[in-house]
UniProtKB/TrEMBL annotation:
InterPro entries: FAD-bd, FAD/NAD-bd_sf, RIFMO-like. It comes from Nonomuraea phyllanthi. The keyword Oxidoreductase applies. This is 4-hydroxybenzoate 3-monooxygenase. The lineage of its organism: Bacteria, Bacillati, Actinomycetota, Actinomycetes, Streptosporangiales. Keywords: FAD, Flavoprotein, Monooxygenase, Oxidoreductase. Residues 2-341 form the FAD-binding domain. Its EC number is 1.14.13.2. It comes from the Bacteria.
Length: 393
């Protein structure tokens, strides 16, 4: 079997890449370890940057997102007994975010690929990469479940725990990483949001985030210790803690209800450089992870895939490799901007055990600055809604 681009992973990165390549007349096969039902149900991110929304619309897969997604023109920072709005419409006119679940993006992309006759294979076992070494006698190829797929190029879109990055020989990659001493406990609840906009809350008990998915479904996150087991968090305890953290301004009442999903996500930052080796190109979480406070993970995956699509289109048009050779450099500037923003938002809003009273004062001072200075608020706003793709970072 042969295709132009062998794609490992049917997350947002792999599926969008396959779709964008199809629009350019380039063939691909997507190999996914999990079932279709599993990837369509996996609850993860929910905030789409302006550029992500524009990309999906331009690619013809934004119709349901435009209908069902919730455009937001601001967020609230809540701390010290008061809420402060960061107003996107004033600070970054014309740019906003859309709240739309990652699994809905995944569903839309799978539907589009299958409608176009795309080759997306689920429950594929034992994917392995071969012929990556630029000096190897063969071109690259993938093996899985007794089959062989020859390709011109392999795209490793298989997330942080995938097989693509580990297939690169030792000594090639430089890894930069940071583990945080806390995790996020996330829930989905069948309850109307208690606020029109997202609330990022800093309290002495830790961080909490009120997000949503629809007028009847809310999403919440709580900062918890890194080794937290979900079994220690019965529903009543989760609601009590959310109330204790979010009901920190007078008159705010959190509506509680049935919890339909819950999980604990570790917080880590990770970058592997370069994001390529031979004819293997890594995109999305396969190459980099950010702590979720800045809502950047999914959006970065989309940005990588845009760059890779342009580079592959040039390569398949006339054999030119300049854009492919520069793929990693072209992506990493945005990746590092997102790393910094995510670290900054995390540091601003979480409680750190090692924080002394001096550290806490610094945190509150910075929050006061961000919520009172238009220059500082604009820094937050322009990063949160996402810098334009053509920004010279
Ligand atoms: P993924 O979505 O991870 O997709 C990779 C795909 O590859 C998966 O479908 C996987 O099953 C498949 N795969 C893995 N190994 C193999 C293999 N060997 N063979 C074949 N297929 C394979 N970001 C936010 O902004 N906000 C959040 O709240 C948030 N929550 C998150 C919660 C969790 C538990 C995780 C893991 C991530 C979260 N993120 C969040 C990050 C965001 O969801 C990711 O950045 C985004 O999913 C990246 O997309 P991707 O396509 O690169 O990787
Ligand atoms: C959501 C996730 C995030 O990481 C974030 O910063 C904001 C919202 C969400 O899942 O809705």
């Amino acid at each position: 079997m042969r295709t132009q681009v062998g794609i490992i992973g049917a997350g947002p990165a792999g599926l969008l890449l396959s779709h964008l390549l199809h629009l350019r007349g380039i063939s691909s096969v997507v190999l996914e370890k999990r079932s279709r039902a599993y990837v369509e149900r996996r609850v993860r991110a929910g905030v789409l940057e302006q550029g992500t929304v524009d990309t999906l619309v331009e690619a013809g897969v934004g119709e349901r997102m435009l209908r069902e997604g919730l455009p937001h023109h601001g967020i609230e920072l809540r701390y010290g007994g008061a809420g402060h709005r960061i107003a996107f419409e004033k600070l970054v006119p014309g740019r906003a975010i859309t709240v739309y679940g990652q699994q809905e993006v995944v569903k839309d992309l799978i539907a589009a690929r299958l409608a176009a006759g795309g080759d997306v294979r689920f429950e594929v076992e034992d994917v392995a990469l071969h012929g990556l070494d630029p000096g190897a006698g063969t071109g690259p190829y993938l093996t899985f479940g007794g089959e062989r797929l020859d390709c011109d190029v392999i795209a490793g879109c298989d997330g942080f725990h995938g097989v693509s990055r580990p297939a690169i020989p030792d000594g090639v990659l430089s890894v930069y990483e940071r583990d945080y001493p806390f995790a996020w406990l996330g829930i989905l609840a069948k309850v109307a949001p208690s606020s029109e906009e997202l609330i990022y809350t800093r309290t002495e008990r830790g961080f909490a985030l009120h997000s949503m998915r629809s007028p009847t479904i809310s999403r919440f996150y709580l900062q918890v210790p890194a080794d937290t087991s979900i079994d220690d968090w019965p529903d009543e305890r989760i609601w009590a803690e959310l109330k204790a953290r979010l009901e920190s301004v007078p008159g705010f009442d959190l509506t509680t209800g049935e919890i339909t999903e819950k999980g604990v996500t570790p917080m880590r930052a990770f970058v592997a450089e370069p994001m390529q080796y031979g004819r293997l190109y890594l995109a999305g979480d396969a190459a980099h992870i950010v702590p979720p406070t800045g809502a950047k993970g999914l959006n970065l995956a989309v940005a990588d895939v845009r760059v890779l699509t342009e580079a592959l289109a040039a390569y398949f048009a006339d054999g030119s490799t300049a854009l492919l050779d520069g793929y990693s450099d072209a992506c990493l500037k945005r990746v590092w901007r997102a790393q910094h923003f995510s670290w900054w938002m995390t540091t601003l809003l979480h409680t750190f055990e090692e924080d002394d009273p001096y550290g806490r004062r610094l945190q509150l001072s910075y929050l006061d600055y961000v919520t009172s200075s238009e220059a500082a608020a604009t820094t937050l706003a322009e990063n949160y809604v996402g810098l334009p793709f053509d920004t010279e970072l």
